[in-house]
Design a protein that fits this description.
With 142 residues, this protein is mainly α. 86% of the residues lie in helices and 0% in strands. The protein has five helices and no strands. α3 (48-74) packs antiparallel against α4 (81-106).
């Protein structure tokens, strides 16, 4: 595969991810809010069935996004591969906490509202950071 195509694919996919990050953060703010009380109120009225209906498509879609992102990251030259492993593990942990914490929130466990906000923001920031690494690397390589 020519390097030019891979670079174009990385930039195109990364651009879509950045648009999604912005829209996801905006929707989170507009629909839920960024305070623990807002998060508790939003998820308290959700049924377990409703939470699962949201969780399953998110698990599928975000897993595909992470797979593509981490495959692009694998080709990036970094000082050590340990950095890539740490970023990969961080993304997966933040994603799982973000997606599963609403189940505990709906049961009234308030600490998970803080975890939800932190995991959501952390996931968005780390995913954006990974794509910045991929993008800047694609500009450096010939």
């Amino acid at each position: 595969m020519p390097a030019r195509f891979v670079r174009f694919a990385a930039v195109a996919f990364g651009s879509l991810i950045f648009v999604q990050l912005f829209i996801g953060a905006l929707l989170f703010y507009l629909l839920i809010g960024f305070s623990a009380q807002d998060v508790m109120e939003y998820y308290r009225i959700k049924s377990f069935h409703g939470l699962i209906e949201t969780l399953i498509p998110h698990l599928l879609f975000i897993s595909i996004v992470l797979m593509a992102t981490l495959h692009f990251l694998a080709f990036v030259q970094t000082k050590e591969n340990v950095d890539k492993v740490r970023l990969s593990h961080t993304l997966f942990v933040l994603f799982l906490v973000d997606q599963t914490s609403p189940i505990a929130i709906a049961q009234g466990v308030e600490i998970f509202a803080y975890l939800k906000i932190g995991a959501f923001l952390g996931f968005e920031l780390v995913l954006g950071w990974v794509w910045m690494i991929i993008f800047t690397s694609s500009l450096k390589s010939a």
